[in-house]
Fold each of these.
Amino acid sequence: ARSCHARAPGSSPRRFRIGLAIMRRHAAQRVAGGVMRVVRPLWTNAFRSAPTFLAPANATPRWAAAAAPFANRLSFAPWRPYAAAASPPPGNAPTPNSAMQDDFLSGTSAAYLENLEDQYRADPSSVPPSWASFLRQMDAGVSGAELSEMFSAAKQGGAAPAMSYSPAASSAVSSQTIQESMRLLLLVRAYQVNGHSMASLDPLELDIKTTPVELDPALYGFTENDLDREFFVGTWRMKGFLSEDNPVQTLGQILKRLKETYCGNIGYEYMHIQDRDQCNWLRERIETQRPTPYSKERKKVLLDRLAWSDMFESFLSNKYTAAKRFGLEGCETLIPGFKEAIDKASELGVESLTIGMPHRGRLNVLANVVRKPLQSIFNEFKAGPKPAGQSSAVGGSQYTGSGDVKYHLGTSYDRPTLRGGRMHLSLVANPSHLEAVNTVVIGKTRAKQFYENDKDGSKHIAVLLHGDGAFSGQGIVYETLDMSQLPEYTIGGTLHIVVNNQVAFTTDPKYSRSSPYCTDVAKGINIPVFHVNGDDVEAVAKVFELAIEWRQRWKTDVVVDIVCYRKYGHNEIDEPMFTQPLMYKTIKKQVSALDKYSKKLVADGTFSGDEITGVKQAVLDTLEKEFKDSVNYVPKPRDWLASHWQGFKGPDQLSKIKQTGVKMETLKKIGDSITAIPAGFTPHRVVKRVYDARKQMIESGEGVDWALAEALAFGTLLEEGNHVRLSGQDVERGTFSHRHALLHDQNTGARCVPLRSVYGDSKPHNFFTVSNSSLSEFGVLGFELGYSLENPNSLVLWEAQFGDFANSAQIIIDQFISSGEAKWLRQTGLTLLLPHGYDGQGPEHSSCRVERYLQMSDEDPTKIPPDMRLDTRTQIQEHNWQIVNVTTPANYFHVLRRQVHREFRKPLIVVSPKNLLRHPKCVSPLDDFDDEEKNATEQGIRFKRLIMDKTATSRAKDDSLPIDLGAKRVVFCSGKVYYELDAERETNGTENEVKIVRIEQLSPFPWDLVDRELRRYPNAEPVWCQEEPMNMGAFSHVAPRFQTLFKQKQISRPLDQLRYAGRAPAASTATGYGAVHAEEQVGLVKAALGDGVHA
C-alpha cells in the first residue's frame, strides 16, 4: 500500500485503488487495536458523552476509523483516547477476514477489486452499498500520499496530517466527515428522544409549535445544501432505523424517515426507559421502513366500530336532549382502538380484562365494548323501574339497593373477539371521584391472577381510562403507578388510556399542570407513552395494538394518550364558551372522525359512498329497534355476584350464625406449627423470645396474647382452605413490634413466614400473604378492596399504621366500602384494622376517628329490630358494615373467623388496640378459642357482641335473668378504657356496687344484650365512659340508642338518665401534653365510677 502513495505516470488507476483498499484495511485493523489519535481532538468528547444507543457497553461498534469509515462490518475494540500503543483487551482482537461479512474486507485480490469497480461503473446499484460509497469517495480525489501519511501517523501514535487543512480534510475519510457522522447520529437520537414534540397530535390544530433546537439540523452543522449529500450512518447493534443494511443515505432521506416516524400522527416517548432491550423492541416496531397498511377487511371493521361509537352518541343526543350522559363526542376513536386492543390481547392469550374508567364515554364503553344491553341503557335514561328481585328463584334475594346514576354503574360480559377468541370483560362500578377506582381495579386483577394461578400475569390484565386533568392532578395516579412493580401488588402491567380533552372541566392545561404532557408522571417508572391524534382512527388502532403487545412482552405499564377534544361542555347541558371560547369556536367547525375516515376511504378507493352509507344505516336500524323494544323492557336481576359467589346470601336473606370456635387438638397442632422457627434460621434474639413465649402459651393453654390470637385465627382459616392476605405499612412485624409474621435471618437476611408451615407445599406459596405496603393509604386500601371483591373465600385485611392515618383513604371508605353494596350490589368482607387508644401520644396517634365510621352506619337509632334471636337474627346482613372495639384476644380471634364463616360478606372495622397488645390482663385462655362452651362466662364458640360484668353469671335474656338490686352504677364502655376502669374499681373495692359492661360491637348495636344488662341492674345508674372527647368517640352513636331502650316498657327509665364520663368537647382529638393527658385520664375514670358510689 505504501508503494502506491506516489504513483508513477502511466501506472494503473486500478492498482492504485487496490493498494488504497489494502492500506485502508491495515489502517482499520490498527484502529481496532486501539490507535485512534487521528481524529481525537475534534470529536472524541462528543463520542465519549454519547448515549448508550451510540456506543453501548460491551457492544462492538460498526464504524471505521478515519482511514476507513466505510468498513461498517468491522468489530472494533472500545476506543481509549490516551492509550495509543496499548494492545487490544482480551476478547476484542481484530475480526479475521474469514469472519467478515462485508465485501469491502473480503476483496483480497486485485482482480476482485477491478471486477468490482467495473460493476460499479456499469451500474452503481449492483455493488454492495459500502463499496459504492467507497468508490464514490475515491472519485473525490484523495491522494495516496495523504492516505499514507494518515496511516503512518496512526501507526506511530502521533498527530495525523488530517488535522491540518489538507485536501484530506474535505474528503469522506477526513476527521470532519467522521465528526459529521457522529453529529448525524446525535440528530437521529434527538428525533427518537424529542420527535414527539413536533408530532401532529391536536385534531383542533390549536397548538402552535416551533421546531425545538435539538431537532434543527443547523444545530449539528448541516444546511439545505447538505440535503442531497450522502452520509455514512452505519449499522448498529440495535433495532429500527440504525439496524437496516443501508449505512449510506442522503441527509434528506434520513430527515424524511425521522419525521415520518416521530412527527406524524403518533408521538412516541420511550427513550427515558433505561432498559436497552425494551428500547430496541420499540424501535423495531416504530421505525419500520415500510409500515404494513391495513387491509380492506380491517378498514371495514374500523369503520363499523367507529360508526357505532359515533352514532350511539348522536342517537342518545337526539332522543334525550336534556339528559346528562357525559358523551364521547370528540374521542369516538376510543371505541375502535379499545376493541382492537381486546382482539390483540385475546390473540396473545389474555382471558379477562378488568376495566376502570371515569364517567366520560362510560355509556359508550358499556354499550359497544362491554356489550351491556342497549335496552337496559335506554331504560335507565327513562328512569325506568328498579331491577326486579329473584323471587322466582329458590331463596332468591329481593334486595335491589339504593342504586346509582347510569354513568357510574358497572357490568361484566363474556365477549367474542374478532379473531375467534373470547374475553371476559368486567367494568368496575365507581363514584364521581376521579381516579379513585384505579387501585380497586388493580387489586381485583391481582386476585384474579392469584385464584386462576396466572403466575406471570399474562392471562388477566387491567385497563384504566383517565381524563387528562385527572391523570396529572390526582395523586392516586402516582400511587397506582408506584405500586406497579411491587412484588405483592404488581399485576404484570396495566394499560392506561388517557382521553385527553385538552381541558380539565373548565381549566386550561397551563393552569392545571406544570409539565408539557398530562402523562409526564408516568415517565417516572420507565414505561412508554404513546401520544396519538384522536381523529386518526388507524393511528389509534395501531398504538392500542402496540400497547397490548408491550404489556404482554415486558409485563409493565404502558400509556396511550388520545389527544382529542370534548364536543360539549363538562356535560351536555354545560356551556363551554364561558371559559374556552376560542377552542369551542374551532370545535363547532370540526368534522367528526367518522366523517373524516369515511371521506378518506372513499378518496383512496377502498369503499364507495354507497358502501359507507350502508354501514351507517345498519347501525342506525339496530339502535332504533333496541330503542323501540326498550319500552316494555323489565330490568333483569343484576349480576351482583360472580361465579365464586354462588350460594352467598343477599341482605334480605337469612344466614344462620355459625360457630367460630375450633377443636382444641386443631388449635394445639396449628399453634405448635406457627410458633416453630426452622432449624438453621437465626432470628433476632427478641423475636426468638417472642416465639418461645408463644409456644409456652400453646403448651400451657394460658395467657394467649393479641398477636398469637391473630395468628391462630389466620392459621385455622388457612387450615380450612381460606386464603388470607394482610397488607399495610409495617404489617410484617407490626407497627408496635407485636406481630412478627415475617422473620429475617440475622446472618443471611433470609425471610421466613411461619404461618406458611400450616399448608406447606399443598397451596401456593403466597396462600398466606403478609406484606408491607408502599407509604400509601388511599391506593393500598383501594387495592385490598378490589382484591376482596373477587372471591369470598378469603380474609383480606388492611392495617393502618395508626388509625387516624386511614383518613388519607377516606374516599375509598366513604364511596366504596361503606356504600358499595347499596349502590352497586357488590359485597366485600374487607377488614380494616385501625390502631386506637389514648396513651399520651398526642393528637395524631390516639384516635382512629371511630365516630366517622359510626356516623356512616345505616342503622336507625330509633328502631329496635323485631327479631334478635340467635337462629333468625339478620341484623348484620341488613346493614352496611360492622364496627367493633374488642377487648380480649379471644374475641378478636372469633370476630376475624366470623368474617369468613357466614353466608354473606360485610366490611369489618376493627378499632384495634395499641397498649393492650402487651397488657398483662389482656390475655385469654386457650379454652376461649375452642368449640365447646363449658359455662356462661366463657368466651368460646363465637364472637361476643357484649361482654357482661365479670361478676355476672347468666346470659339469659328472658325472665330467668337473675336481677342484681345492689348495683348502684353500671358503666358501659368499649375498648381499652375497660382495663383502667376495672383496675380503679379493684383499688376502690367497689365490685359489688359498680358494674362494667363492655360493648364489643358498636354497630350494628347489640340491642338485645344492652337491654338485658339494663334489666339486670334496675337500680343502677347507667354511664357511658369513653376516652375520646364528647363530640368524638361512640357517645353520639350510643346515646340515642339508649334513649330508645329507656322507652321500652320493661326498662322504663328517664330519657336523660345516661350519664357521660369522658373528655370535654374538643377540636383536636387529644392533647399533646403528657401531664394534661394523665390528668384527663384519671378524671374520666373517676367520673365514670362515681365518687359517691364508694364513699
Amino acid sequence: MDNKNEILFWKVFKNQYLLKIIFYQIQNTEWEVFKDPFRINENNKIRLNDVISLSHLLRSFSLFKYKIEREDYINIKKFEIQLFFNGSFINKSKEPLKFNYCLEILLSKRRIDFENCDLTKEAIRYKNIDVLKVLINKPYSMIVYQSSFEHAINYCPAILVKEILIANENNNNQILKISKNELIGKNLLKLASRNYFHFEEMLKLILFNEINFKLYNENSKINFNSFKKIKCYKTLKRLMDDDLVENPNSTGEYNDFDFISNENPITFENYNLNDPLEIILIILNISFKYSCEIYFDYFKGKNNYLKVTKEFKLKIDQIINSGGSSSSGNSNGSISISNSSGGDSDSCNHENIKLKKIQYEIAIIVGGRFYQDYKIKYNEKIKKWEPIIIDDSTIFFEALKSGDIDRFKSLPYCSPDKTFSLWILPSSIDLVIKLVNYFSNEPFWANFLLDTTPFYEKVCEIIPVEEINLFPQLVTDFPYVYFSESVFQLDFNIIYLFIKHFDNFNPNWFLSIFEELIGIKTPILYDRSIKLEYFKMDQLLMVLKELLAKYSKAIDNNNLPMKRLYEKIIIYFYEKLISCGNSNIDHINMFRNLVGKHSFTEFPFDFTTCVYYLLKRSPKFIKFIFDDSILLPSNQPLYGYTTIEETLESQLDISIFTFNYIFDLNSHGSYVNSFDDIINQLFNQLTFKTFNFIDIPDSNLKYHYITKRLNWILQFCLIIKRTDLFFNQLLIIKNFINYDPNWNLIKYTINTPSSKFKFNENENQNQNNNDDNNNNNNQINKPYNLNWINEKIPLLLPVSKIIKSFEYSNVTLELICVFLEINEIQKFIELNFNIPNLLDNLYIASIKRNKFKVVEFIFSNFNFIIPCLHHHHHHNGNNNFIYEMYLELQYLLNNHYQTVKNIKTIEYDYKISNYSNYSLIFLDQFINFLNENKIEYLSFKDSSEILRNQVLDNFIISLSFQSNELPINILPKNENSKIDKEIIEILLQQDCQLLIKNKLEQFLISLKINEEKKFNQLEKFYIENINNPFLKGFINGEIKYCELIKKYYPNQFKITKSSITKAISFDNIHIIKYYYQENNCIGLINSFKSDIQLFEFLILELKNHQDYKLYLEWL
C-alpha cells in the first residue's frame, strides 16, 4: 500500500472506537444469503473463540490446524467421530492429505478425547477402510470385537474384512477378538448372503481366503435363493463340492425330476459359448443336483428356459462318457471332468467335441440368441429350431441410431417402446435434421412421434428448437395429453413446438386435461423446506414471446376460447416463475412488463402467491411465518386446521402484502417499505392481532400459546442478528402484557436481579431510580392492596411487590447469551430487573452455550449463588449433547473457586439462601390462606392468642407441603374476595405482627433443620450416587472431566459397581481401561487393584458382555 493509505490504515487501527465498530460489523454481517429460509439458523456464523466442537472445526482445515497448534480445548462427541469417519467434513478421496493429517493428529495428540467410543466399530459401521487400517495396525493396534466383525461381514466390502484378517495375522492374532466356534456357529455364509452390495466377493473371501483363518465348517449352509444369484462359476462349484447349499426341496429326492422351475430358476447371464466344458458342466450339475431349470438371459429368445428332464440328463451322460473317458458320472447323479494334461491335444479335442454336442442339445431346447450364437460359432443350423424373428421395434431403433431413412421407408408402421433410454439419435447433426424432416412429412410418424415419445426431447438436445420445422396439417390427432403434460412439467422446448406450429385445435380439451393436472393444490412446505423448482430463464422467455404473439392474435381474431387457454398458460408460467429457485425480482418485473404490453393484467394473488412474494423479497420473512410456534402446545393447529400452512392462511391478511407493497421502489431506488416495515407488520398480524380473537377455551393453554409466539419473535430477531429489532420488540411485548387485561401471569418480585444487585445498601437511591425508570409499567397493585398500610405504619414483615411477568423460554435465553454483547446483556437485565429467577435462568442458559462472559457479568454485578452444577447433563451414554461439563467446572474452579469449593453442598446452599425469600411473601400467603379458609378466617378474628397461634400453625402446615418450591405465581383475586377492615386492623396491631414474625422465624428454622437432615442423610450416599460429578463423567466416558474432578477434589470420590454397569452398557469401556491402571486412580478413594470386590464385579460384568468377554487379557 502507498504511504498515504498506510497512514490512514494505522490511524483507523489505533482508534479503538472505529476498530470496535468495524469488528462488530464483521461479526454481525451476513456474508452468505440463503435462498432456503430453513437454512437460516443460529449456527450460520460463529465466532472463532466459540468454535470448540470437532464438527465445526473439521469444516475448516486451517481452523482445525490453528486450534491444534494452540492446544485449545476441542469438544469431541461420538456423533462427530461418526460424521468424520463418514466423510461428512473432509472427503477422503478428494483430500486424502488433509484427512490423514486430522486423523493422525487426533490419535497422537488428542487420543484420550478422541477415543471416547469404539473407534474400530465406528470405522466398520461407516465402511471407512482407510481409517480402519490406521486403527488396527501399528502403532495403535486397536481391537475389533466380534459384533463389529459380524457387522462387517453383513454389510461391508470384502476388502475391509480382509484388512482385519491381515492385521490380525500381522499382530499375532491380537486384533480380532472373537470366539471362533461361536462365530462359525452363526453361519457366516448365510450372514454374507445378506450383504446386499458385496455378497459374492464376501463369499469368495470366506471360501478362498489366503489367510489361515477358516470361517466355515460342514454345518455352514447358504440358502438356495442366495446360491442361484451367484455368477462366479468357481464359487458355485466350491459350494456344491463342499455341500454348503441348503436343498430347496424338503424331501431331498430328485430321481423323478419333478422340477420346481417357477420357484427356483437359475439365471446365467454371463455364460458364453466360448467358455470351457468345465463351466457348462457346473451349470448342468446345479440343475441335476437341485432339480431346477436354467434360465439363459437372452432377451430376444423364445422358450429360454433349459428344461432339464431325465431324457436330457441321459443325453448329457452319454456325451460325457463317449469317446475316451475324460469325464465320469458321480454317485449323486452329477457329472464332472477328470484332471487331464493341458498338453494333451487329443484330450482337448475330445472336450471340444463334447462341448459342441452339449451346446447343440441346449440350443435345441433354448433357442433364441443361444441358437444364433451357436450358428455363428460353428456355422451350422439346427433344423429343429427356426431362426429368431427380430421384431419391427428392433429395426426401428437400429435405423434411428444410424439415421438410415431408407430402412424406415421399408419398415412397416409400428409402435416402438417409448422408454427414454432406448431412443438413441445419430451423433451427426445433419442426420438428425434429415430424420426430423422425414418424420414431419410422413403422416403416421408425424402423429406418432408427437404422442408422448421422447423423440423431440432428444432432438432438442442436439439442435435448437427454433430450427425444428413441423407440418401441423399432417397431424390428424392432436396430442392433448402430451401438450398438457409438457406445460405442466415446464418442458419449454416441447411447449414451444406446439405453440409455434399449431393453431387449430380444441382449447377446451386441453384445458380439461390441464386443469385436472393442476387441480390438486400443492403444499408449499415439503419436510420442513420450501420446494423450489429450477429452470432456464431464457427458455421461459423464448416460449413467453411466442405465447404472447399467439395471445395477441387470438384477441385480434376475437377467438375467446384460445385467448382463455393462453391466459391460463401465462398465469401458470407466472406462478412457476415466482416459485422458481433461480428467479429474482428482476425476472418477475420483466415478465410482468412483457405481458403488460399485451394488455394482460390478471396476475394471480392468493396465499401461495403472497408467500412467494415474501420469499423473493427476503427468505427471512418465510423463516418467521413458517414456524411450529403457530401450533398449539398440544401440537394441534388452531381451529381444526391440520398444517402450519392452513393455520397461517387463516391468520394472515394477505390483502396487505401485495406485490406493490412488497416490491415498490422510491425515486432513490430503495424499497418504499423497508424490511423492518414488513417484518413488524408480520409480527403484528401473526401475534398481537391474533391474540384478541384466538379461540382457546383453556386460559392456561392460551397463555402458553401466546408466550410461545412472543418468544419466537425474540428468537427470530436474534437468529437474524438484529439486536436493535430484538429490543424494540421486547419493549412492545412488555407494553402488551402490561396493558392486556387478560394477561394473568403475575409474580412476586423475589429472587430478582434487583434483590441481588451488588451495592444495594450503599446505592439504594440509585436502585430506586432504576426501578422507577424501568419497572413503572410493570408494577401493578397487589390483590389486597396493602401498600397504603406500609406508608402509614411500618410492618415488621415487608409487603412484597408483584408484577405482570413474561416467561422467557430456555431457547430465547440461550440465544440472548449467544448473540448479545455484554452491554446489551446489561440492558436486557435492566429491562427485566424485577423478573423472578431471571439470573438463575440466564446463568443456566449461558453455561449451556459456554458463554462465560455472561456468567462473569452476573458474578461481578450480583450477589449470586449458582443454583446447581451441570444442569444440562443427561446420562445418554454417547454424550452427544453440545453442552460440555468440563468447561463449566473448569471455569468455576479457575474463576470462582469459593462457589464450588464444597462441591457436595452447592444445591443445599442454594436452597438455604432461598428460604430468606419466605419473609417477603409470608404475609401475602397468610392473607391468601385466610381468604380461602373461612373457618380459619373467623378464628383469627377472635382476639384469643391461642386461636391465632393455632391458625398460624395450620397455615405453616399448609406451607410445609410446598416448601420444596417457593410460591412465585399469583392469581389476582376477584373484587368480591377482599379482606375486611377488621382483619386489616388486626394485622396492624403490633402484637399480631410480632406473633406472625415469630412464627415465620420458627418456620424458617424448622425448614433449615429439615433441609440439613435431608442433606446429611443424602451425604452418606453421595459417594455412591451416580449423579455425583465424578460418576456422571465416568458413566459418560469423559476421562478429561473425571481427571479435573480428581485433581480439585482428591480422595472424595470412588468408582462404584453401578457406575461400571452403566459405563459398560453405554460401550464406554475406554474409561474403565483407563482407570484400571493403578497410577490413574491416584486421587480416588479406591482402585480396581485395591478393591477386590470391585475387581471381581468388573470381571463378572465383562464376562456377561457379548464382546468384552472375548478379550480379558488386559486385566
Amino acid sequence: MAVSAGGTLAARALVATLAATSASARPPDRSRLVAKRAAEGRNYGRGKNVDGGTGRALSGQGYRAAVRGDAEDGAGRRVKKEMSSPRERLGLTPEARQEMGGAASLGGGLLLPDFLTGGEVGGSGGPTADGYFDGNSDEGSALRGGGGDGDSDQSSSRRRLANQLTGCCETYSAYSAEDLCGSYGEDCQSGEQPSHDSGDDDCAQDGLSFIGVSFSVNTASGNPYSYQLCDQFPMENIIDRDYDYVMSMDEDGWLVGGGYKQFDYSGKMPYIDSSHTELLRVGSMDTDLGGTSIGQVIQAMSEVELPPLSIFPEYLKGGGGHNSGDGDDEGAPSGDITLVVSVVEVYYDNANYDEYSIFLDNLFQAFGDAGGGSCMDDDDTDPHVSMSRGVKFKSSWHQEQYMYEANLEVAVWQAMYPKGVVIGTKGYASFPPGRGGKKQYVGYGNLYFFFDRANITTAFSTYRDMTDDEKYYATLYTDTDVSSYYASTTTIGFDYSGSGDQGDWEHNPYSWKATSAMHDMTDGWELPPNCEQEGESFFGIPLSTKAGSKLQSTTTFQSQFDFEMLVDRNYTYIQSFGTNHGWLIGELFDNGAGSIVDKDTAHIPIFYIGTTNVDMGGMSLSDILKIAKNIDFGTLYIKPAFVFQDEFGHVKLQFEMDPSSAMAYLYDALCKELGIAWNYDSPYNDLGVYTSCAMHAAGDRAKYGCGPEGENSGGFCPQLTLGYKVRFQSEDHAAAFLNRANGYVDYWRGLYPSGVAVGTEKFCPDGGCLGLYLNRYDLYQVFKPDLGGSWVEYHGASMAPTYSPAPTWSGGCSEPHNYHLDKCFRKRSSSRPKLSVMAWDSLGIVGQFSILLVSFMALTLSVSIFLARARKRKRKGESYIGFFFRDLNRKKRKKKKLRRKKKHKSLGNKDLEEDMLSKSHRSSSRRSRSSAKSRSKSATRRRSKSRSRRERELDQGEDDEKSRRSRRSTSRSKSTRSRSRSRRDKSSERRRDRDEGSDGGEGGESSTPRTQLV
C-alpha cells in the first residue's frame, strides 16, 4: 500500500514523540511479565511474584539476586574457559604474575600485593594448577567475608547484595586490575607513556616556584579577590572574554585580566588573576630533593639591592603549547597566547653596567651564599606573560583579527611608555592572600615570590625611590587622560607575525563526534554546531574528601575510598607535573613542587552540559535544574577497574563501564533529554528547553562507551583524573607506580565485588547521589536517587530551589524537610500576611515615594533648624555634638521651671478668688485664718520667685547675648518687685482694716466691704 511522503513524516514524528515522552533512567520494569504469567496460572499458588515452574522470583529483590548469581557463575566459567587464549595476549601468564613479586590472591582471580597484606591473606584456598584462583574455592569465600563452605557463603553474599537497590559490574568480578587494563585497551605494565622526564641528577623534583613581576588587576568582570598590583597595563583590554574570536581554552581560561568570578558562563576555574613574568625560577621548595626553602629565598633577597625595574611591552604572540590539530583536518589547531616583555637596561648614576644585570649577579651570589638548591635555574628566564593555554580560535581569520586588535593595544602601551615603565600601584594588599595578614602599601617596582602562580607569599620593595621620569610614567595611566594615545595610535609598528601560523583554516562544527566527550581538559574543546561558547559544567558523582593536611573548604562526600593510596606525595616515582596543577585529589599547602594549592576535586564526570549562556547556544542553570529534578534514576554504584596513564599523559582511575547499571541508564536518560541533535536523533523533554553546547549526542547510549562491553564510539566512560601530565623519572618508575596503584585497586575490587554507592552519614547517607558541577571546583547541587529530593551544596549553602513540582518527602508541606520547597514556602508565608505589609503595599509606588519624600524633607528641615540654632548659641570652640547634649539638658531644666510656675499661678488664683468672695458677714475668726493663710502663701511666693530669679541668672550667664538678656531680666525683676510691694502694702492695709474692724465691732459699727478691681 502506497503511503504519501507527508504521511510518512507525520507517522515518524508521532512515533518519535511517543517514544521520547518518558525518559526514564531506571532499569526495565518486569511487571508486565509478572501479570502475564499470573494470568496464565503459572504461579501454582506459590505467590504472585514467583514462577511455579522454576521457583525463581519474577521481579523485585529476589529476581535481582538470582540474576547476580547467574552473572557470577557465568563469569567464573567464562574466565576459566577463555583464559588460556587471552592471557598470553594480555600478559597474564603465570610467569608474568611471578615477576610482579609475591602477589597474594583475594580470590576470584583478584591479587593483593605483599605490601598490603604483609605476605598473608585470610582463607585457606589457593591457586589452581595453572596458577589462577578458582572462584568457587575457599579463597572465594574468604573474599565474601566468611569461612566454611564456599557455595553457602556465596549464596549469603547474593542475599546480602539483593537487599540493595541495584549493583553493577558483576561480569568482570574475577578480573584483576591488570587484566581489565588490557581489556580496555590500555597499558598498565610497561610505563611507555609520552610524559616521561629526566632532569638534573641532583634535582629529584622539578618545581614551579619563582620570583617575578606581577601584572595582576582587579576588574568588574573578574574575580573580586584579585590583587590590583599593576596600574600601568590594562590587561583586560587584550583578552577575549566575550568569545568574539576564541572558540575554547583549557579549564583555567584567561590567566590575566582579573581572573574569573564564580557562576561565570564559561565555567572556568574561579581563580584570581595570576598574570606575571618570571625573572628567576626557584623550582622545588623541598630541600631533601634538591630544592630551596622559603627561608633561603627571603634571606637571599634581603641581601641584595632591588632597583625599580622598568618593563617594556614587546608584542603578543600565539603558538606553542599543545598544538592539537596540527596536520589534522578534523580539528582546529590549539596553542598558547603569550605577551612578550623585556626588562629595560637602565644605567643609574652613569654606571658601567645596567641595574638589572647587577641585580641578577648579586642575586645568584646571594642564593649561593644562602645554600640554594640545585633545582634553581642557572640563568634568568625570558620575560613573558602567559595569558592562556590550549586556545582554539574559530578560524584563522578570527585568530588574525584577535592578534591585530591585541597588538594594537600593545602599540598604545609602547606609545605611552617609550622607555618602559615601573610596575606598581598606590593601593594596599596583604601577602599571602587570605591569611589574615596585615595590609601593606604596595608601591612601585616590587618583586614578588610566588609559591605557585596563584599564591604570592612575599613582596620585596626597592632600595631607592623612583626618579621624576619614572614616577611620571608609573602614574600616567591613572592620573592623566590617555585617550589621545588611543586616538593617535592607528598602526602597529612592530612585527608580531610568524608565531603559530598554520595557513588558512576554519573550524568545522560538523566534524564533531560523540567521542569528543573524552576530552583533554588541558586543551580547548571542539564545539558542535550552533554553539558559540565553551562551558565546563557537568553532571558527575562527587568523590572528594576533606583532610586536615589539605587546603579545602568542602565537606567529605564519600568514605568508601582513600585515594591518597594512589598518588605519590613524596616524589618517589614522579618528577614533575606538566601544568600548574598537582594532584587533583587535593594538594598540600607546603608541596615542594609549587603546584597550585587546590582543594580536593575528585569526581567522576558523566555528562558535560557546556555553557549556561543561553545567548551563546547553551542552557540556563535554572532549566538544567528543572530537568535534573524530574529524572528518575536509581542508586549509582561504581566499581574501580585500574589506574593508567592516557595518551595525553594524565594519570586516571578507570571505573568499570557496565551498560546495564543505574549509571548507564542515567547516561541514556541525560542524552535523550539534554543531548544535542545529531545524526537524525533529537532530544526531548517535557519543558521543551535544549542546548547546542552539550558534549553528548541525543542518540548516544552507554552501550557505545568504552571497555570490553562497549563499542568505543560514544562518550560514556567513567573515569577519575588523579593528575594532569604527570612526568615520571623513568619508564621503570612509571611501571612501578602503576603496579603499586593497581594493587590498591585490586583490594577495592575485592572489597566491593558488586560496586558501592558512595556517601557519608551526613552527605547522601543512602549513597548513590548525583551532583551538578559548575566546574571541576564547584559542586552546586546534589540529587538523590529515586526522586528523593535535592539540595544546594554550593559552599555549604542552602537556598530554595528554582523549581519544585511537589514535596519530595512524605508528609507534604507539614514535613520540615519540605519547608525549603517553593510550594511549601508560599503556602507557609502567605497564610497570614502582616497588616503593615498590606498597608504599605496598598499605597502603591506613588504613595510610597511620597511618604519617603516627606520623611526626607522633614529630616532635612530638622537638621537645618538645629544647625541654625547651634551657630547662634554654641560656645566658642564647642562642637555641634556637645551643644546638642547641653541643649537637651537645658530644655529639661526649663520644663521643670514651667511646671513649678504653673503650680504657683494656680495657687495665687485661688487666693484672689477667696479675696473677691470675702463678705462682711463672715466672722472675724475666718478672716483671721484667711489672712494668716495669705501671709504664708505670700512668703512662699516670695521664696519661690527668689529661687526662680537665681536660676534664671545662672542660665543667662551661659548665653552669648548677655546684655540683651540682662536688660530683659532686670525689667522682669523690677516688675516682680513692684507687684510684691503692692501685694505687701495691700496685705498691710487689710491687717489695719481688720484691726479697725475689731475696734469698731466693739463699738457696734460694721466695716465697709472692700472691692478689688482687676
